[in-house]
Amino acid sequence: MIGREQEVKELNRLYERNRAELVAIYGRRRVGKTFLVDETFADRITFRHAALSPVDQNANGMLQAQLDHFYNSLTLHGMEKTAKPTNWLDAFLLLEQFLQKIDDGKKQVVFLDELPWFDTPRSGFIQAFEGFWNNWACRRKNLMVVVCGSANSWILDKLINNHGGLYNRVTCEIKLSPFTLRDCETFYRENNVVLSRYDIAQSYMILGGIPYYLGYVDPELSMAQNVDKLFFARNAKLSAEFDRLFDSIFVNPEAAKSIVKLLSTRNSGFSRREICEKLRITDGGRLSRNLNALIAGDFIVKYAPFGTGKKDERYKLIDPFCLFYLHFLNGEQRGNKQFWSQNATAPLVTTWRGHAFENVCFNHIDQIKAALGISGVVSSSSAWIKRGDDEEEGTQIDLLIFRNDNVVNMCEMKFYGGDFTVDKNYYKTLLRRQEILSKEISPKTAARNTLITTYGLKKNEYGGVFTNVVTLEDLFK
Description:
Helices cover 43% and strands 16% of the residues. It is an alpha/beta fold. A hairpin with an 8-residue loop joins strand 9 and strand 10 (395-403). Helix 7 (152-160) packs across helix 15. The protein is elongated and about 80 Å long.
């Protein structure tokens, strides 16, 4: 098990407790939720069932299909055949009877995978699940019910933040996040994939820390060849993944995709008002649900740029896979089976790498803080955009780290094949930005230029403008 040590420890701790447990595990699709449960409990699962995907299914017959599928799982686990259930109340009654019959006093683990897919329109599923837990399961001290789902908004709204019969019933929630760079490196090593950290960082820019995608990397090919094989070749495995990803977890996938596509066009993100204007949609509950679901799934983040209030909060796309897909898989590049290998050093790709590296850094704030020696210092991170006027020019800094020890790190992120060199013009730019920011912050706060780059900083007469240097090696720690 890679990168999930704390989650495994927590699940085993819950397993040993002498009380009923309802555990909700959620996270981005393909992040490894099912694998976590299957590997942690292995031969300890009493009953395991995964719902049918609603994609490409007949909506009218979906309820009965789910019920029949649930019944078949019960019989496969050893339940004697009986009349098939026609509603979820009867289905859960069968589960209760089955668990009671085989109860030998040992811990029973019930694993229900893709729980949101059970909840088809007018199915009464959530009410039946509520009855199952409140009337029976919660009193079984040797019962552990583990539920998973990629439709994170459903898990949050219907289970974790439920204000009805399931209020405060979840005994543990686990949000499974994508791998870090270090986890990706360990994953590749365990699968005999030999890549430099420079290439692992590039793979993160494309595949993110999603184990399912990393598993497709062929150890016999270079990183560039793998990208061609996975995205640009004929019948490439991930060429249609973007649509599949959203179709499987959103009730209205087109609305969610339209938001993500818009956010992909500006690195600093968009305000809620701008999203409504650009997409020509109304600001209401539907937009809130889509934004919250995208946040819960680690696709986007919400932040307030420095110097702004809540009304100026922005939504920023941070999912590397979506950013890469929308940048390169929507145009003429699709027709070239060797696009990535042929354009590895082209301006189109090198410019993209620069922006993508900023996103890598944004997803590794903890590692950056550790490299700066401030892991224990309370801090907040955001971008900063200073609008220009007739008297003063504007500027933008993609990452500021505000610290409670009266220091703010102005982070410049540069993805280079060698040591980064500061020339005279860039030196002046950095000093100007530092001066502008100093006017906006408290006089007792020091603004420090901080470089985050691949290999390091080349020493010259201008290099001293950076107080701190963080390298790729630090991001892997």
